[in-house]
Amino acid sequence: MWIAVLAAGAAGWALEPTTPLADYGRQAWGMENGLPQNSVHAVVQTRDGFLWVGTEAGLVRFDGNSFWVLDQNSKPAIPSGDIHCLLAASDGALWVGTSDGLARLKDGVATIFTVKEGLPGNAIRSLHESQQGKVVVSTESGEAAFDGAHFVPVADGMLQTSPALYERTLADKTRVLVTKGDVEIVQGSQRRNWMVGKDLPGTRIQTAFADREGMVWIGTNGGLVRYGMGKLERFPVTDILANASILSIVEDREGDMWIGTETSGLHILRDQRFRNIGAHDGLSSDATTTVVEDAQNRLWVGTNGAGLNVVRLGVVEPGAERIYPVRDLLLSDVILSLAAAPNGDVWVGTPDGLNRIRGGAVDAFTSADGLPDDFIRSLLVDTDGSLWIGTRHGLAHWTFALKGRGSQPEPEHKEIYTQANGLGSDLVGAMTRDTKGNLWVATLAGLSRLQLGQMTNFTTASGLTSNVITALLPRDGGSVVVGTQENGWSLWNGSGFSSTQTTEMKRTNVHAILDDLHGHLWFATANGIARCDVTETAECANWLEFGPADGLRSRETATNSHPSAWRGRDGHLWFATPKGLEEVNPEHFPVNTTLLPVAVERFAVDDVDQMVPQKDGKELKVPAGHNHFQFDYAGLSFVAPQKVRYRYMLEGFDKGWTDAGTRRVAYYTNIPPGGYTFRVQAANNDGLWNTRGTALDFELEPHFYQTIWFYILLTAVLAGVVVLVLRRRLVLAEREFSAVLGERNRIAREIHDTLAQGYVGISVQLEVVAELLRHEKSEAARKQLDTVRANVREGLAEARQSIWALRSQDVDEKTLPVTLRRVTEQADGHGIEATFSVHGAYRPLPPGTEREILRVAQEAIHNVRKHAGAKHLWVRLDYTEDELAMEVRDDGRGFTIGETEVEQDRGHYGLTGMRERQQRSMEDWTWRASREVAARSDW
Predict the structure, then answer these.
(1) Which of 808, 876, 883, 796 is closest to 843 using CA atoms?
(2) Is 292 or 770 the better-scoring residue by pLDDT?
(3) Beta carbons within 8 Å of 571's beta carbon, 6+ residues apart
(4) Residues 469-481, mean pLDDT to the nearest whole number
(5) Run of H or E residues at 873
(6) pTM passes above 0.90
(7) Which CATH class name applies to 598-705?
(8) Does the structural domain 807-939 have CATH classification 3.30.565.10?
(9) Per CATH, which fold does 12-271 belong to?
């Protein structure tokens, strides 16, 4: 499938009507080039820019580079591969008439019509569009018109009752009527008629077409004929189109003529920008070296080994040769340089000396006659008739004088310039004189100027881009264009050199430079022939390069001779090349102003072609997991498809345009999911960009883990985890704080109940001791001190007990039964018999819960030892499936329940602390059990 956009723009030029048929550019396609069959019955160009070719083996879409064939087995399919006729409708649809039905192609979709949809018959003979915009089809069984869904019998005014194959009124009011047997031309009161078999080749006319210039092309079963400017013109008898059976003729948007034949395939006629003259035209050799025009409107063309040729320009007398060689009496058949003098003399430089041709006489001059060297590289006839001669060993200047009445001018004064007297190098190349009278001489070591008898040499230090000077061209105002080897060109503006070359011109070999009458500069370069526009500031704009696609026989232009290019008096430009003499007519050198339609011909994902949506607003969906994307595109130009340039961008991925040059495919790999637009633009052979281009929208769908909802869910989960972690840390912090606070309260209570009270008692007893000693009751004081010592020991024991109670490693490292057994065993003695027992299977509790239970047991055992006066102490743990019970029992004196309510008021906190620890252990157990029930299912 394909998508294309036709850019608005000026239509291309038509074929130049004054160009002989044999001089048009030619190209042909047959089965060996991709056509399914050589019989071309119909050719049309649709609004999107594609060329469609109907053959007997399928319908072909042509983009200038490749063919795409549709038949009854293709996708989309058409009723038959035997194509009879084609119609490019005004709505952009292509109608295809076949031997077995009708097809309508639009936006990549084929709709098939047969007798079921109202056609009178399935064998289609012709198609045309009525003035009402309806498609009318003619079949072997009658005619019908398309009403938008079906075919209905035609109404009056739609029938083609005229027997004419072609009928048109041209811009000059000339009426052209073409039938199968003749062509009638009516101009005012004048009427002309050409009959088949008499004035026209063949036995019947099969097709006709009038181009934009009003030239009428007539195809018969015996050849192609053109009528225009009052005359009929045929191809040379050796041309294949002079005798071929012509089935179809059409002009494309760029002005090219397409010719479909019965047996020789598809042909195109293009306007040639360049005309080549070579050995096939009568030159003694294709290897031309130098060219110059004399005062008699003749071109003198030197060759490399085949002597000199004369080409007569303009109208040639009957019986006279247009091109003839000159070889006799020349010192060498290798021609290095030429110069034409105003008096008719032609000077010829060769590797073996200098020749002068005057009339039928040829004179020879060598180093024996005063030349610095016999190798003559360049020649220049000055305005005063003197001759400048460039050699390998210096520059010679000869002036001439008549030696006697009726004699030939002979060299009278000979002057030699070398490196010794200011010349940049003894190896001399191109020479010219500017409009201010200065002589410029190109050498291999810079550019030398002879001004008022003084020689000045300029090099790269003076602003030149290179010291190897290859070409010179004087311009108005005393400026000189200087061509160099591998460094483009510079401009002398009268005061200095400036480089006006663009990026395209840098590092270019310039072999010759010309200008035309429209201000363009023309260059013979290493890449062919180039042209640029010179602006008012001497800048070079719109650089265009021309090669074989533009009609040049070869890109090679280097000859190392001078001058190798010449502008004739008629404005034509001539370039000597190793492949013949190239002629350019700047007056007919049209610039292609057609904005190229651009089409995306193929979109493949992982090498699988995708069905591209056609202007229906739908976005192509590409499933997740695909990595490789390929876009094949084409700029639909048939003038020079090899020169079409492209740039593309994948919006949503690329940051800017990618310059693809002439490459017609783009690849992308591993692009992230999302919506994208692939855009492509094309420039025609003259560098005019279609900035609208075309676009293809598609969306690469993400995996589920690449969707926004997945990221939202993931964010929510992460946020929840963070919240839970923070809450857990907060709970732990609160518990640690509560534990620390509880321990502080417990220590405070124990200190208050034990140490503080003991210290108060000791303090009172010490006061008693002091009073007894004051009354000298030493024995009573001694007894009192023994009591104080006993109280101190008891206080120290209680302090050790409190410090031991702070240790947590016992709880952390040992289970509750083990730790509680140790506490119970420590209470044994001092008149108390302590017993510990465990009933049921041990089940671990949260460490905090076991710690609180242990503290409760410690407090209870401490109270038994201190207050109960008991002789027996029993501590028991009972484990059941979902419950833990601890019992501390003694046989002491006990207490009443009511007394515990005022315990805190009396400054005691034992039972209160036990209640608080019991409450905390229950809270910790409940919190953990609710969250760990899955992990601890047995609890």
Answers:
(1) 883
(2) 292
(3) 516, 517, 585, 586, 587
(4) 92
(5) strand 872-879
(6) no
(7) mainly beta
(8) yes
(9) Methylamine Dehydrogenase; Chain H (2.130.10)
